[in-house]
């Protein structure tokens, strides 16, 4: 008997205390569905018409990016690259080129665990869709044989991407939402928005501060409990916070959970001892890629990587209910759930 669990609202970070002390400014709140999840906006400005216009602009920008980078839309740039694998180069936009090259960068950093060309494996498992299943080992081996980030050829003069072999494919699902968050931030800056909070289904962008000047308090989701139950809280200003966990999208078969974070080197969902990783930094695209990367790498390698990057911090939650943070969070993370142990 197989139980499929597809979380539409894949929120890995839950807004903790976001109440606004300045009662003169009421946020304009809006939800939209894009990128396979519900996106929630809270924009604070004295002019609510302006806030609504800014949200409209953000939604249009999100749709434009999705049409280019989705691997599930028939005529997206990514889909066209995949359809022409082993045949010809495909011209893409500057931003698809940028995001794909970022994905290639993290493919190299993780020695292929995070992988730009993971699409054959993602498509095979179908996690998060009605077709989710455990493939046979021969199917997994075949998919892995088509995964090699070195087979992605970038021509920046012609702005094209080419995959060397048929049945190969790129997938930007582990990084595109982070890029979207960065683009939304640009819209806020352009329109002189002073305070805003956006939840892109687990990718949180806490823009500037709350209107009273205090930091945003963000509750970190307890990966072993229902939505809205926290294991701890951090305070941030103008940061992106992205969490990857085994509870976001998964299905169960024969009593075993199969989650969506696939290790391209073995062909199965990652099992490196972690159940949740959160990245806190200014860059959404880096936070998105790093949250998946360190989940795949495991605690020791992941901690070493994050500590080597300036301006990036992380929270790691292990199977043993232990919580580890990088040095930059030692005085800014409060464990609130006694079920877990904070290993400082």
UniProtKB/TrEMBL annotation:
Pfam families: ApbE. It catalyses: L-threonyl-[protein] + FAD = FMN-L-threonyl-[protein] + AMP + H(+). It comes from the Bacteria. PROSITE patterns: PROKAR_LIPOPROTEIN. Gene3D superfamilies: ApbE-like domains. Its main location: membrane. The keyword Membrane applies. PANTHER family: FAD:PROTEIN FMN TRANSFERASE, THIAMINE BIOSYNTHESIS LIPOPROTEIN APBE. This is FAD:protein FMN transferase.
């Amino acid at each position: 008997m197989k139980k499929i669990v597809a979380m539409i609202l894949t929120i890995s970070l839950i807004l903790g205390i976001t109440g606004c002390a300045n009662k003169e400014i009421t946020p304009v709140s809006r939800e939209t569905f894009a990128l396979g999840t519900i996106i929630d906006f809270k924009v604070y400005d004295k002019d609510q018409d302006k806030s609504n216009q800014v949200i409209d602009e953000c939604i249009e920008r999100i749709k434009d990016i999705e049409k280019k980078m989705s691997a599930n839309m028939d005529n997206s740039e990514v889909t066209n690259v995949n359809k022409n694998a082993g045949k010809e180069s495909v011209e893409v936009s500057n931003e698809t080129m940028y995001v794909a090259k970022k994905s290639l960068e993290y493919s190299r950093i993780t020695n292929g665990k995070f992988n730009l060309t993971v699409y054959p494996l993602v498509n095979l498992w179908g996690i998060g869709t009605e077709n989710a299943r455990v493939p046979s080992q021969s199917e997994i081996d075949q998919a892995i044989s088509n995964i090699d980030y070195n087979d992605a050829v970038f021509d920046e003069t012609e702005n094209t991407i080419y995959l060397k072999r048929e049945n190969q494919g790129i997938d930007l699902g582990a990084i595109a939402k982070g890029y979207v968050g960065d683009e939304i931030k640009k819209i806020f800056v352009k329109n002189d928005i002073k305070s805003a909070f956006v939840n892109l289904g687990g990718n949180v962008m806490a823009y500037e501060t709350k209107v009273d000047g205090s930091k945003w308090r963000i509750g970190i989701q307890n990966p072993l409990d229902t939505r809205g139950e926290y294991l701890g809280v951090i305070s941030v200003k103008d940061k992106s916070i992205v969490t990857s966990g085994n509870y976001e999208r998964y299905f169960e078969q024969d009593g075993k959970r199969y989650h969506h974070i696939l290790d391209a080197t073995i062909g199965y969902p990652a099992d490196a001892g972690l159940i949740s990783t959160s990245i806190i930094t200014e860059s959404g695209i880096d936070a998105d890629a790093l949250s998946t990367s360190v989940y795949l790498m495991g605690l020791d390698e992941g901690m070493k990587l994050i500590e080597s990057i300036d301006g990036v911090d992380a929270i790691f939650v292990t199977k043993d209910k232990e919580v580890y943070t990088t040095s930059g969070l030692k005085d800014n993370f409060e464990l609130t759930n006694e079920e877990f142990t904070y290993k400082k």
